[in-house]
Amino acid sequence: MYVCLCVGATNQTVCDAVARGASTSKEVAEACGAGGDCGRCRRTLRAIIAASRDFEPAQ
Ligand code: FES
């Protein structure tokens, strides 16, 4: 599913960026471009980041 139409980034693209260490919408934008243009997808990006955090094993 596309989450960022400006750069054509899918949720998989964003998940990959988060898995590689991006933990803010700004870092996701730096990693894959999503959220770096109009900004309308940033709320979705933050939801993906938050969801991935929930699934991380406890430290
Ligand atoms: S839809 Fe993602 S920056 Fe515009």
Write a structural description:
This protein has one domain: Orthogonal Bundle (Arc Repressor Mutant, subunit A). It is built from three helices and two strands, in the order ββααα. The protein has helices at 11-19, 25-32, 42-55; strands spanning 2-4, 9-10. The chain has a two-stranded antiparallel ribbon with strand order 1-2. β1 (2-4) and β2 form a beta hairpin. α1 crosses α2 and α1 packs across α3 (42-55). The chain starts with a strand and ends with a helix. The model has no long low-confidence stretch (mean pLDDT 94). Bound molecules: FE2/S2 (inorganic) cluster.
Strand content: 5-15%
Our count of helices gives 3
Bound molecules: FE2/S2 (inorganic) cluster
Shape type: globular
Overall structural class, as computed from helix and strand content, comes to mainly alpha
| Regions with little confidence, pLDDT below 50 for 5+ residues | none
What helical percentage do the residues reach?
Answer: 40-55%
Question: Key terms for this structure?
Answer:
mainly alpha, binds FE2/S2 (inorganic) cluster, 8% strand, 53% helix, Arc Repressor Mutant, subunit A, two-stranded antiparallel sheet, 59 residues, single chain
Secondary structure layout:
Elements: E1 2-4, E2 9-10, H1 11-19, H2 25-32, H3 42-55
Antiparallel strand pairs: 1-2
FE2/S2 (inorganic) cluster is lined by residues 4-6, 34-41.
